[in-house]
Amino acid sequence: MTEIEKTPVKTVVPHWIGPMSTVAVAKTYNALAAVIEPRSDLHFGSTFELLVAVMLSAHTTDKAVNAATAKLFPIANTPAAIVALGGDGVRTHIRSVGLANTKARNLIGLCEQLLTLQGGEVPDDREALEALPGVGRKTASVVLNVAFGRPEIAVDTHVHRVANRLGISATKTPEQTELVLLSRTPPKHRLHAHHYLILHGRYCCKALRPECPRCPVAAWCRWPDKASV
Fold first, then answer.
1. Is 62 designated active site?
2. pTM, whole model, 2 decimals?
């Protein structure tokens, strides 16, 4: 993770707010909630497995991560077991993910820190999560949201793209988008907003070929090119 991913978002400026109206934002979330089951495409069976899977997912598809964790977790799915497996052992099982060598080192460091500072448990505190090797703001937000039920909105490249394409935000960075989404998402949708946007982007509002004719929020979308799709 880069240093900017570890930097909390602090302020929002008016030009980050997209052209979609507040009423339309609410209607958009209502429509997405009606058709999307808010769940992760990553496979995990514990909070620790979730943390590992999300950390491995940076610059990698969920399919590749699931292929790797299907090999890793049956052998080592606790911090102590990962440390015992060692760097070479971890690399053997996560070769399908991007930046496997770096992620193997980070995973070993993450597990050692959990054992040393957290009693082997995943902390429910953002600062403690972001202090772990390989864990940035997005990963911490996903863990806090999915595992601990916090109304965090994790912003990756998909969420950033979808929020800007729809017109909810008009931002340059995921950090800016996060703050806009936190300020514009209706409270009742905050808990699942990340999943609504990422799954909409993955299966309908695709990066290269958005499927606008079947889009459940086309009526409120402000993307100027939707009419030509």
1. no
2. 0.90
